[in-house]
Design a protein that fits this description.
Length: 397
């Protein structure tokens, strides 16, 4: 049986919904935010912190980086990425296409795929729609992404169309390869799991999902056309890529709105690389089920912290003798045990502990925000929740 997605609750006013995404490594409650663990590690945190303190359901890892180091063959030999990093819950891997285009000093796109040089040692490699599926199978991903071309912003409409057409052809090739390869009895493709959701144990083989990616830059008509053509391929899930590349946030929302009613309602939707804390409810209101972003972890390491009263810049001198927690409403270990003054001291002295404490806090803010959103949808109060979120005065403290 393939990995499944089921809608549980739908908001009658917005496009928001809650759902369950069943994988071989657990059932994920959606909408969900996925912490980014690019190299198989969410920077500053242990897997135990992610699982036990944060309640993380799924993390994201990067195919490009793991392909280059330590290599997907080595990870497969060690039992797959779950075993390699000792993570029992679900893992989503991207195709590596974005990193190819953004990190490689030499990148050449051809019909077969993309030729690129490693940012580590300059060695030449090629990603194809087929090979990125094979690499992600070797990693043992629960959710895989097809290879796509992520354009810069802004680009001409002619280039955006050419890139979109290539992305569609690559999606077709990647999906066909995913459908026709892999041994269902092999654990690098699917895992036998026990489902207790119906009150009884049912063994089933859960295959990894492959998501196709909608592109088209910031042109609504191209986005919609791309979504329509990808929807006809009937993939397990769909992603909206090419956002958060420098465009105004209103454009990001418009691109999601342009395709949401075209993408199959019964399939999970993932918007890649978004967003700020106050934007999460906006994407959910537009029918999004899955999101990821480096902001909570990267901003944490740089002393930019999210609170219920706005963002807080920890290096500011006014926190030097402030004995209050970052956020009195926050449940995280950091807020329960340490003051703003201590965190400022750690940041200014370059202590490694700061990164751990700050990351714990920021990810708690994100994960708890999604939990609030899920609960609001479930009890029929999401429109009111969204209105409150829109009227909130987000500011720097």
């Amino acid at each position: 049986m393939s990995t499944r997605f089921e809608i549980v609750t739908e908001c009658p006013v917005t496009r928001a919904r809650t759902g369950l995404l069943h994988t071989a490594h657990g059932t994920i409650e959606t909408p969900v935010f996925m912490p980014v663990g690019t190299l198989g590690s969410v920077k500053g945190l242990t897997q135990r912190m992610l699982a036990e303190e944060l309640g993380t359901q799924i993390v994201l890892a990067n195919t490009y980086h793991l392909f280059l180091r330590p290599g997907h063959e080595a990870i497969a030999e060690l039992g797959g990425l779950h075993s390699f990093i000792n993570w029992d819950s679900a893992i989503l891997t991207d195709s590596g296409g974005f990193q190819v285009f953004s990190l490689s000093s030499l990148c050449k796109v051809i019909e077969k795929g993309v030729i690129f040089r490693s940012h580590l040692d300059g060695s030449e490699h090629m990603f194809t729609p087929e090979s990125t599926v094979d690499v992600q199978r070797a990693l043992g991903s629960d959710v895989m992404m097809v290879l796509d071309e992520c354009t810069d912003y802004p680009v001409s409409k002619d280039y955006a169309r050419s890139s979109m057409e290539r992305t569609i052809r690559w999606a077709d090739r990647g999906l066909r390869h995913w459908q026709t390869t892999g041994d269902p009895s092999s654990n690098d493709v699917g895992l036998s799991v026990t489902d207790h959701s119906e009150g009884e144990a049912v063994n089933r083989l859960m295959q990894p999902m492959l998501f196709l990616i909608v592109q088209g830059s910031m042109f609504p008509d191209l986005r919609r056309e791309c979504a329509e053509r990808l929807a006809d391929m009937d993939a397990p899930g769909y992603a909206i890529g090419g956002l958060s590349v420098g465009e105004d946030r209103r454009l990001s929302f418009e691109m999601v709105e342009a395709v949401e009613d075209v993408l199959p309602r019964a399939k999970p939707r993932y918007v890649m690389g978004v967003g700020m804390l106050e934007e999460l409810a906006e994407y959910v209101a537009r029918g999004v089920d899955m999101m990821d972003c480096v902001l909570p972890t990267r901003n944490a390491r740089n002393g930019y912290l999210f609170t219920s009263e706005g963002s807080l810049i920890i290096k500011n001198s006014k926190w030097k003798t402030d004995d209050r927690p970052l956020d009195k409403t926050c449940r995280c270990y950091t807020c329960s045990n340490h003051s703003r003054a201590y965190l400022r001291h750690l940041f200014l002295t370059g202590e490694m502990l700061f990164c751990t404490l700050a990351t714990l806090h920021n990810l708690t803010a994100y994960l708890d925000r999604l939990k609030e959103i899920r609960e609001a949808i479930q009890i029929g109060e999401f429109p009111a929740y969204l209105a409150r979120a829109r009227s909130a005065n987000w500011r720097r403290l």
